[in-house]
Amino acid sequence: LPLTYKLPSGDDIPTVALGTWKASSEDVGAAVKAALEAGYRHIDGAWVYGNEAAIGQALKEVEHHVPRESLFITSKLWNTFHNPDDVEATLDETLAHLQTNYLDLYLMHWPIAQTADFKVDWELTENPIRTWKKMEEMVRKGKVRNIGVSNFNIRRLQNLTASDITIRPAVNQVELSYWNPQPELVSWSKDNGILLEAYSPLGSDVLVGKTLRLPPVRKIAKKLKITPAQVIMSWHVQRGTVVLPKSVDGGRISENYQTDLFNELEAAATAHRPHRINDPSSHWGIDIFEDDKEDDFH
Ligand code: A2P
């Protein structure tokens, strides 16, 4: 399986990254070091995870044998900083926390702009062009090498890419798992040259146990003499997406880095009714994904 994909900028993006959402500041440093030891060079973070300073500290401690240039570091612009006047300051804070002067990838974390008191800014949400232009400026300034989005559906991406933008989104980071495989988004993204990144690839903490016990997953694992988690990672890479497994355990981090070749899972994953795990729509007062509601999942 490929170890990297090519981005439109020409940069190589490693196919497997360490996910750091829900990793505490206490745990994340050791997780990052374990990941680098296992061979990972791609770390996926975000301002809102609140652990970027701990990640930066860990990277600093190993920089003599893992130089910055060998790493691919991603962070994300939080909803409350979509106002163009706020973008550079929050990016600078992320850079300071990570102790670096550039990011490899900066994503708009959600297609939702919020005011400081968490009300939806409808104008900036429906027309994110002004936020995007500021992100483009960060590329020109050398603070960011690639820009993209996260949690965008097809309509919102079409809306953004139909505007007068200079740099197209290189990636869209979305929830992709056995439970929410989004085949339509996968094929649309492929056709439109936008790389997908799979977050919660194991089904997140809520469904990981269930995922790893799935009969088709166990069957493939047995046949290939790999673990169920490795079957899942391999499936994502075979679908052509980056995969972002989160773990704070050295053994599991190392396990998740190994991928293998087969193609028997896609049909099973797309045969059942999809279930989205992460959807703050009701909490934020806006229908983020605009997809069918599925409440019959147990
Ligand atoms: P932990 O951090 O203790 O390893 P996802 O990547 O889909 O968000 O899933 C993350 C969840 O899956 C976390 O609860 C994580 O716990 C657990 N996890 C990660 N890798 C493995 C693995 N190889 N085997 C079992 N559980 C795992």
Automatic annotation (TrEMBL):
InterPro entries: AKR (IPR020471), Aldo/ket_reductase_CS (IPR018170), NAD(P)_OxRdtase_dom_sf (IPR036812), NADP_OxRdtase_dom (IPR023210). Pfam families: Aldo_ket_red. It comes from the Eukaryota. GO terms for molecular function: oxidoreductase activity, acting on the CH-OH group of donors, NAD or NADP as acceptor. Keywords: Oxidoreductase. Residues 17-258 form the NADP-dependent oxidoreductase domain. The keyword Oxidoreductase applies. This is NADP-dependent oxidoreductase domain-containing protein. It comes from Serendipita indica (strain DSM 11827).
